[in-house]
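Hi R.,

As promised, here are both runs. First protein below:
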Amino acid sequence: MSRTDKKIEKFFTYIVYICGFLLFLEWLYFPINEVVEISYMPIFILFGGFCLLLSMLRVKWWVSALLKGIGIVLIIDKIYLKQFFLSRDWWKIIYNEITFNWSVFLDSSWYNFSSLFRTVLFMIIIWMINFIIYYLFVYIKRPFIFVVFTFIYIGVFDAFTVYDAKHAVIRTFIVGFIVIGIANFMKVNQREVLRIPNFKKGFILLAPIIGIVLFSAVVGYASPKFAPQWEDPFKLVTEITGIHVKGQGPSKTGYGDGDSNLGGSFLFDHTPVFQAITKEKQYWRIESKDVYTGKGWEKSSSGDFIKFTGQSNVGKDVEVVPSEAKVEFYENKGLPKLVYPYGIREVHSEESPVIFTDEITEEIIAHVNGKQKALHRYSVNFDEPQYPINKLNNSEAKVDLNEIEDRYLQLPEQLPERIHHLALEITSEYDNYYHKVVAIENYFNENGFVYETEDVPYPQGNQDYVDQFLFETKKGYCDNFSTSMVVMLRTLDIPARWVKGFSSGEKVDEVTIDGDIENVYEVTNANAHSWVEVYFPEYGWVPFEPTKGFSNPTQFYTDEDVNDEEEMDESINISPEIPELHDPDAPEIDDDLKEVEVGESNEQLTINKFFSKQQVYYIGICLLGFILVTLIMYYRYRFYFQARFIELQWRLRKDGKGFQEAYLHILERLKYHGIDKEPNVTLREFAEQIDWQYGLKSMVLLTNEYERLLYRDEIERHNQEKMIALWKDVIDEF
């Protein structure tokens, strides 16, 4: 095999590694990142790439294991451990983590493993996947098995989760068959010792593989497809196991229009959507829906938008505080509808939009140059409402349906009667319109209801969504609580509607605007929310919050003109109890672990006179990284440095000892590349074999000189430069 052959083989090997890494992403990044929110996914991707890089550099197994172990420790320290690296407190945390998780393992309560330990296991899995890729793709050159399992893996994700694997299948097909073709070509090349004179010929051999795969992928993607000929097998899986397939599996939080089939579990997605600057917390309204179907919500109107007049949507008898809010969406996170606080009057934007609203749903959209457009940055002037509890108490028990349409009393004909009976039971002690609303709102804070996002079922068959929640599961999230409250109020002839948007978000900063301190709130997909609005004559639509663990940011107050303070409902100030997520049967973490704080130790005090802990951490990481890179580079090019050192010694010594060390270095390098002399083969036969296989003439001449030195103790010193040149020919080949 010539030097060019060797380079071309190495080039193909690099392509195989790259293909392996792309298939690794199909296992880790694309499906998992779509289904589960993992904050440090880029770090795990880098760790996987680091594992493959060590394999590509052919680092010895024990060195590779050591470097990967160091990588795991650094990642764990970065994510979880706030103590000074390798300090006494740091080791104390590690010790307590080990003892705690060991006790969990012995108790077989594996769901209680700590997050740190689960992360370690996750990285070990990444390590193992990358080893499997190296073994199948490079060592035995049989990637077909891994490609098949990749198809199965993404197929399972596509069937049982929200992940759409349409493009993943195409990517896997292209990458998988390219790597299968290259691996088989390399196997044939090793067996037959094909001669490839230059890189151009190598590319010519590679081009048909890539061309055929790409052509097949394009044809398969573009060609018409038959409709499914077999009955969906996953229906049978659902009936037998109760496992819900796509469309009924866990989804991610976030705003969407699909509310006709509520239910099922979801996963929190903490991706930021927008930032809002306001003085007080606000609920960010988007729209309401009025038709309850028994399974979810639909709109009775078809989206008849009229020009927004700037009239506040707050009732005429409501006290208001003129306020302003600024909204800015993150890149690629804009919504087609505006998010806005209660009491909106005006919308301002640099794009000078024309604002339209739907009078029924009160959703607001913007038009720029005659076309609907998502505004990414705008400000809102609004009248923040403040509702007088005393006067709400005195509201009429019945509403004039000529004023408020009966659409907000709509219920499906098949609604179970026991929902109405429960609403009557809850409100039986009250004859006051407002008190009845608050009684139903507070009903969910007790009576066994739990806020839960996992293992939340869909209603089956003709089962009603609200009936299932109230009488069977008693667990769910905002959609369950808010829908149930609206339906129960409607059974009492109290007009109510279902509203969706975003909750307040998390305060992340403060800014000063015109001398006033304003709060900056970050709103994420996890803040997507639904709540309830109830109609009160003279006060309009008043928001209520039945979801356990949430508090209504709307301001309620007692009118000082009304002396009868006993009418004030104290329940409005009740803070809903947050669900307890701790498992009392789980092993307790050592108290020492809880008491460890981030405070500075004595050794930190000395260091921090010059550097902060963060600076020391990053300096240490940089130094460690420099040392690791230096060691890897030396290991990768150690033969080069050794050869230069041996050559220098040979020139200086000018004796047989220098030549002998140089020749033995060739044998060592050949052995590293898997070319070892068999015991029954003479040294001269071995040299002839090397020259023939790699197109050389140097190995036989060097071997002749080595045998003269070995058996006769003779060496031609005047031929030293010639021997060095021959020796370098062999060295350069390997």
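And here is the second one, sequence first, then its structure tokens:
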Amino acid sequence: MTEEEVNRLALDIYRGSIFTDRHLPPSVRKDILHLVFMPLIFTTPETITTWEAENGPLGMIYERMEQAGPTGINGYPIFMSSNLVNKVDTDKVWVKFEKIRAAAEGVMNEGVLPFKKDPAQVTTPS
């Protein structure tokens, strides 16, 4: 993945427009992963081995929320398509995600101070 793709994926995960296998609790992940990401039902171990030979170890499965079907399972969306990301790129995405989350929390924890002037009168340096 390019740096731009990593950034976009991390931001979209933060915004909630991407659902990943990591959104499933580890206690149920193995049992319902193939029900959330339906293409996995038809995936053989050989398919994954071939994909990993070309791309490196599998790190994450994801899909855009807009691709979710009209029903869900146990409160989780169901997708008829999915995307795979290798472990190296997955690690980059989650590092970037944590930076985005920390930055957002940092801003929210600062609090919002009232303007001392009318905001329309505040000038910014050019």
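A quick note on the second one: Residues 3-121 form one domain. Let me know what you think.

Best,
J.
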